[in-house]
C-alpha cells in the first residue's frame, strides 16, 4: 500500500463512472444506474464509492477526471466536480482522455496490435482515436497516436482495423461489431492509466472538439414589409 | 452557528458566475465573473458559451470570494446554489460545483430558486424583509410581480410577462438603434439626453379588458414592434432617427407600466413595501418613477444597489443564510438543476 489515494470519475458518456485507486490498483468502482442525469448521480456515487472502498475523503491525494471527448453538459459536470473537490480538499487534479479508458477496456479484454476506439458524439458522428497496444511496466496499455477527432462514421479510414466502444456499437454497419470490452469509459481504467504513466495525464480541461453552436446575430429583422 | 451562519452562495443560471459569502445578513464577498463580452457579438446570451465560461471561472471565482471575505472553506456553515430557473447547461455547472463543495466540506446544501434569491438579496442592503412584501423582478430573463409572505418558503406569483422580459425589450431596442449589447445601460444613457414625451408608445396590457384578464401581467413584444415600426418609418422617409428621444420614450413606456402595476399590486394585496430586483432595477428612470409613485401611495420602496440587483452569488448566499436561520431542511445531494423551476418552489 502506498500513501496515494485517487478518486477517478468520468462523465463523458451516457453514464457516470467513479472509482477509488490506491496507487497500485482499483479498490472500488461504481457506475450510475440511470442514463444521463450526471449532475444528480455523480456526487452521491462519489460518496458511495468512498464508503465501498472503506476510505474517507480526507485520505484522498489525487482526483482524476475524464476530459472527454463527450457530450458537453455531462462532461462539464464531471470536470467542475473534480475541480472543486481538488480545490476544497487540496488534491492534485489530473485529466485523462476518456477514449483512452475505452481503449484500455478493450486491451484488458484482449485487443492486440492496432485498433480504433470510438464514442458517441451525437449528431450522427463519433469521437475516435487510433491506438497501438504497448507494454509499460509489464502492463499492456493502449497508446494513442494523436488527439481524438470527430467524424461521421463513414468518413473514418479504418484501414482494416477493428473498433472498440459505444461508437462501434451504434454504427456496426459502418464500423463493424465492437471489440470486446466495456462500451463506455470506466473511471477505474482512467485511474489505472494515470497511475501507470504520466504520459496519459492531460490538462484537466474539456476536449470539446467542436465550437459552440452560435450565430452572430447582429442584423435586425425588419417589421415593415 | 444558526444565529449568524457563514454561507457561500453559487449562481450560474445565465452568464454570470457568481460566488457570494455572507455571515447572517452581512455581505462579506460578492465575486462575479461575467461572460457578457463573449455574447455581445451574438446580440444575446449563447447558452453553450455561457456554460463553457462557468466551468473555467468556477474555481478562480471561489478562490477570489474566499480571499475577499477573509475566510477559508472550512469556516463555512452551509452551501447554497441556484438550482433554477435558468439555462439548463449553465445551472448544471453551479449545481455540480455546489454539491462537490458540500461533499468535500461535509456541510449542508440548499438548492434555491433564483427569483426568490433576487428578493432575499435586499436583506444584505436594508435588513430583514418586511412581511408581506410585493416584489417586482425585472431583468433580461424575468419580469415578475410576486407576493412574498416569507421568502424562505412562501412566494406567490401575481403576474409575469406573457412574451418578452423587460430586459430583453431593452436589448432588442438597443440593437434596433445600433447602441450595442447589453441594451439596458445604453438605452438608459441615451434616454437621459432625450424627451420621454416625444413619442407616445403603447403601454402593454393596460387597457380596461387587459386590466381584468392580465391585471399584473406584462407584455413588451408589442412595444418593441411599435418602436421598430416607428424607426423604420422614419428611415423610409429619409429622416434621421432621434435616438435619444426614441430611447427615452421607449423607456418611459416600459417604466410606466412596470411601476403602475407594481404599486397597484401593493395596494390590492395589503403590502406596505415594494421591493425591486433584477438587472433592470439598475435603470435610473425606473428607480425615480417607482420612488415617486410609492411616495404618493405611502408605500416603502426598497431597491438594492445595482451590483446586488444583477445576478450574483451574494443573493443566493443571503437566501441560504435565511434558510439556515429558520431551520429549513437542507436539500439532498441528488438535487437536480431545474431550468423551469416554478417560483412557488423556493427550495429544491
Ligand atoms: Zn436574475
Automatic annotation (TrEMBL), chain A:
<dbReference type="GO" id="GO:0002949">
    <property type="term" value="P:tRNA threonylcarbamoyladenosine modification"/>
</dbReference>
<keyword id="KW-0012">Acyltransferase</keyword>
<dbReference type="GO" id="GO:0005829">
    <property type="term" value="C:cytosol"/>
</dbReference>
<keyword id="KW-0808">Transferase</keyword>
<dbReference type="InterPro" id="IPR022496">
    <property type="entry name" value="T6A_TsaB"/>
</dbReference>
<dbReference type="InterPro" id="IPR043129">
    <property type="entry name" value="ATPase_NBD"/>
</dbReference>
<dbReference type="GO" id="GO:0061711">
    <property type="term" value="F:tRNA N(6)-L-threonylcarbamoyladenine synthase activity"/>
</dbReference>
<protein>
    <submittedName>
        <fullName>tRNA (Adenosine(37)-N6)-threonylcarbamoyltransferase complex dimerization subunit type 1 TsaB</fullName>
        <ecNumber>2.3.1.234</ecNumber>
    </submittedName>
</protein>
<dbReference type="Pfam" id="PF00814">
    <property type="entry name" value="TsaD"/>
</dbReference>
<feature type="domain" description="Gcp-like">
    <location>
        <begin position="35"/>
        <end position="135"/>
    </location>
</feature>
<dbReference type="InterPro" id="IPR000905">
    <property type="entry name" value="Gcp-like_dom"/>
</dbReference>
UniProtKB/TrEMBL annotation, chain B:
<dbReference type="InterPro" id="IPR022450">
    <property type="entry name" value="TsaD"/>
</dbReference>
<dbReference type="InterPro" id="IPR043129">
    <property type="entry name" value="ATPase_NBD"/>
</dbReference>
<keyword id="KW-0808">Transferase</keyword>
<comment type="similarity">
    <text>Belongs to the KAE1 / TsaD family.</text>
</comment>
<dbReference type="InterPro" id="IPR000905">
    <property type="entry name" value="Gcp-like_dom"/>
</dbReference>
<keyword id="KW-0012">Acyltransferase</keyword>
<protein>
    <recommendedName>
        <fullName>tRNA N6-adenosine threonylcarbamoyltransferase</fullName>
        <ecNumber>2.3.1.234</ecNumber>
    </recommendedName>
</protein>
<feature type="binding site">
    <location>
        <position position="311"/>
    </location>
    <ligand>
        <name>Fe cation</name>
    </ligand>
</feature>
<dbReference type="GO" id="GO:0005506">
    <property type="term" value="F:iron ion binding"/>
</dbReference>
<keyword id="KW-0963">Cytoplasm</keyword>
<feature type="binding site">
    <location>
        <position position="118"/>
    </location>
    <ligand>
        <name>Fe cation</name>
    </ligand>
</feature>
<feature type="binding site">
    <location>
        <position position="171"/>
    </location>
    <ligand>
        <name>substrate</name>
    </ligand>
</feature>
<dbReference type="Pfam" id="PF00814">
    <property type="entry name" value="TsaD"/>
</dbReference>
<feature type="binding site">
    <location>
        <begin position="137"/>
        <end position="141"/>
    </location>
    <ligand>
        <name>substrate</name>
    </ligand>
</feature>
<feature type="domain" description="Gcp-like">
    <location>
        <begin position="27"/>
        <end position="317"/>
    </location>
</feature>
<feature type="binding site">
    <location>
        <position position="184"/>
    </location>
    <ligand>
        <name>substrate</name>
    </ligand>
</feature>
<feature type="binding site">
    <location>
        <position position="114"/>
    </location>
    <ligand>
        <name>Fe cation</name>
    </ligand>
</feature>
<feature type="binding site">
    <location>
        <position position="283"/>
    </location>
    <ligand>
        <name>substrate</name>
    </ligand>
</feature>
<keyword id="KW-0408">Iron</keyword>
<dbReference type="InterPro" id="IPR017860">
    <property type="entry name" value="Peptidase_M22_CS"/>
</dbReference>
<dbReference type="GO" id="GO:0002949">
    <property type="term" value="P:tRNA threonylcarbamoyladenosine modification"/>
</dbReference>
<dbReference type="GO" id="GO:0005737">
    <property type="term" value="C:cytoplasm"/>
</dbReference>
Amino acid at each position: 500500500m502506498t500513501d496515494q489515494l485517487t478518486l477517478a470519475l468520468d462523465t463523458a458518456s451516457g453514464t457516470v463512472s467513479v472509482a477509488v485507486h490506491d496507487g497500485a490498483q482499483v479498490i472500488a468502482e461504481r457506475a450510475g444506474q440511470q442514463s444521463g442525469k450526471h449532475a444528480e448521480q455523480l456526487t452521491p456515487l462519489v460518496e458511495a464509492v468512498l464508503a465501498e472502498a472503506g476510505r474517507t475523503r480526507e485520505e484522498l491525494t489525487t482526483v482524476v477526471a475524464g476530459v472527454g471527448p463527450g457530450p458537453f453538459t455531462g462532461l462539464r459536470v464531471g470536470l467542475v466536480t473534480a475541480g472543486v473537490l481538488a480545490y476544497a480538499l487540496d488534491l492534485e487534479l489530473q485529466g485523462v482522455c476518456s477514449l483512452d479508458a475505452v481503449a484500455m477496456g478493450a486491451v484488458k479484454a484482449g485487443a492486440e496490435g492496432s485498433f480504433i476506439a470510438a464514442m458517441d458524439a451525437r449528431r450522427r458522428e463519433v469521437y475516435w482515436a487510433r491506438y497501438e497496444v504497448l507494454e509499460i511496466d509489464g502492463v499492456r496499455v493502449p497508446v494513442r497516436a494523436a488527439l481524438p477527432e470527430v467524424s461521421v462514421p463513414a468518413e473514418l479510414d479504418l484501414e482494416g482495423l477493428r473498433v472498440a466502444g459505444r461508437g462501434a456499437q451504434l454504427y456496426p454497419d459502418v464500423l463493424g461489431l465492437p471489440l470486446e470490452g466495456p462500451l463506455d469509459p470506466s473511471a477505474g481504467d482512467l485511474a489505472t492509466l494515470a497511475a501507470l504513466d504520466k504520459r496519459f495525464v492531460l490538462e484537466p480541461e474539456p476536449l470539446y472538439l467542436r465550437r459552440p453552436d452560435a450565430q452572430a446575430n447582429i442584423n435586425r429583422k425588419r417589421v415593415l414589409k | 452557528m444558526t444565529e449568524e451562519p457563514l454561507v457561500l452562495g453559487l449562481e450560474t443560471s445565465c452568464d454570470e458566475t457568481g460566488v457570494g459569502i455572507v455571515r447572517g445578513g452581512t455581505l462579506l464577498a460578492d465575486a462575479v465573473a461575467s461572460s457578457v463580452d463573449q455574447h455581445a457579438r451574438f446580440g444575446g446570451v449563447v447558452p453553450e458559451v455561457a456554460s463553457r465560461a462557468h466551468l473555467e471561472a468556477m474555481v478562480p471565482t471561489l478562490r477570489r470570494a474566499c480571499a475577499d471575505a477573509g475566510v477559508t472553506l472550512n469556516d463555512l456553515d452551509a452551501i447554497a446554489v441556484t438550482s433554477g430557473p435558468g439555462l439548463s447547461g449553465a445551472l448544471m455547472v453551479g449545481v455540480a460545483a455546489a454539491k462537490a463543495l458540500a461533499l468535500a466540506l461535509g456541510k449542508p446544501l440548499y438548492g434555491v430558486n433564483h427569483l426568490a434569491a433576487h428578493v432575499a438579496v435586499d436583506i444584505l442592503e436594508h435588513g430583514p424583509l418586511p412581511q408581506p412584501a410585493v416584489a417586482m423582478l425585472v431583468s433580461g430573463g424575468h419580469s415578475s410581480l410576486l407576493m412574498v409572505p416569507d421568502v424562505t418558503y412562501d412566494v406567490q406569483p401575481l403576474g409575469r410577462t406573457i412574451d418578452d422580459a423587460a430586459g430583453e425589450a431593452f436589448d432588442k431596442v438597443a440593437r434596433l438603434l445600433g447602441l450595442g449589447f447589453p441594451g439596458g445601460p445604453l438605452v438608459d444613457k441615451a434616454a437621459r439626453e432625450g424627451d420621454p414625451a416625444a413619442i407616445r408608445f403603447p403601454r402593454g396590457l393596460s387597457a380596461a379588458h387587459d386590466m381584468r384578464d392580465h391585471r399584473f401581467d406584462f407584455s413588451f413584444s408589442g412595444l418593441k414592434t411599435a418602436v421598430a415600426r416607428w424607426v423604420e418609418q422614419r428611415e423610409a422617409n429619409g429622416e434621421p432617427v432621434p435616438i435619444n428621444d426614441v430611447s427615452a420614450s421607449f423607456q418611459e413606456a416600459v417604466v410606466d407600466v412596470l411601476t403602475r402595476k407594481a404599486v397597484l399590486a401593493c395596494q390590492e394585496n395589503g403590502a406596505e413595501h415594494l421591493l425591486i430586483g433584477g438587472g433592470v432595477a439598475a435603470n435610473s428612470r425606473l428607480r425615480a418613477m417607482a420612488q415617486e409613485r410609492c411616495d404618493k401611495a405611502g408605500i416603502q420602496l426598497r431597491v438594492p444597489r445595482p451590483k446586488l440587483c444583477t445576478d450574483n452569488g451574494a443573493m443566493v448566499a443571503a437566501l441560504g443564510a435565511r434558510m439556515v436561520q429558520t431551520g429549513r431542511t437542507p436539500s439532498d445531494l441528488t438535487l437536480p438543476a431545474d431550468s423551469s423551476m416554478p417560483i412557488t418552489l423556493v427550495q429544491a
